[in-house]
Amino acid sequence: MELYALPVGDCSCPFEVVAPGVYDGMRAHIPVTSYLIRLPGDQLALVDTGMNRLHVDDPDLTWRGKPQAAMLTPVMRPEDSLLYRLAQLDIAPQDIDYVINTHLHFDHAGNNDLLGNATFFVQREQYELAKDNPAYPNQYWNLPSLSYELLDGEQELFPGIRAIPTSGHTPGHQSVLLRLPETGSLILCGDAVYCQENYDHDSWGSQADPKTARESALKLRALADAEQATMFYGHDREQARTMRWAPTSSYR
Ligand SMILES: [Zn+2]
């Protein structure tokens, strides 16, 4: 099993969007990441699919005229398209067998529409909440051509890959625990933890349900301690500087 971190653009937003009370008034470019997993037997899975590729030419595509427009501006170069990142690894979208969506926000499910051969794993609670809900732009993921398998709680999806429910950012959010042969355990937090500042400043006020989000984040940290796992946060600028990025590097 091998994990590739795919850099799929930045989102420009006030830092309060990820950690209120830390750098209030500052605007930041926070990284957006999709992960590709090469499963034993050469099947391919993605964890999250990034922001839709059309934002390269039209950053306001998703939020034009909506209240979020002032808060969330995608910053994507042509090479930040998921299509481009997959092509760098000689992978076509139809080669993807599975997708685990941590949740269905536009920066995590923005290219689901490309992946017609995949089975998508989403927590049922998240799917039901997001359906026909404009906060989860449905045009990217709620399509009759896509097949969703809805999860109810913690589940081993593949040997060494486990979905961990982590509500708080949104109901039915999930994180992913992976056990890699050489690297050891990794936790892909999704937006259960945006960045290190959330822990350092006990800052959870921008999560939909701060109390539940804090509990989920503490649960993940306890899991990381027990597994001696490295945590990859959802949108951490410092961590992005030290990640091994595809196509040149990976985690085995
Ligand atoms: Zn996010």
User: How would you name the CATH homologous superfamily?
Assistant: Ribonuclease Z/Hydroxyacylglutathione hydrolase-like
Please state the structural category: alpha/beta
Q: Roughly how many Å is the radius of gyration?
A: 17 Å
CATH architectural name: 4-Layer Sandwich
Whole-number mean pLDDT? 98
Across the major sheet, the strand order is 4-1-2-3-5-6-7
| Low-pLDDT sequence parts | none
- Principal-axes shape call: globular
User: What is the CA-CA span between the terminal residues?
Assistant: 6 Å
- Which molecules other than protein and nucleic acid are bound? zinc ion
Set down the secondary structure blueprint.
Layout: E1 2-14, E2 27-38, E3 44-47, E4 73-75, H1 82-87, E5 98-100, E6 119-123, H2 124-130, E7 147-151, E8 155-158, E9 161-165, E10 174-180, E11 184-188, H3 196-200, H4 210-227, E12 230-232, H5 237-242
This protein binds zinc ion (ZN).
Residues 105, 107-108, 191, 234-235 line the site of zinc ion.
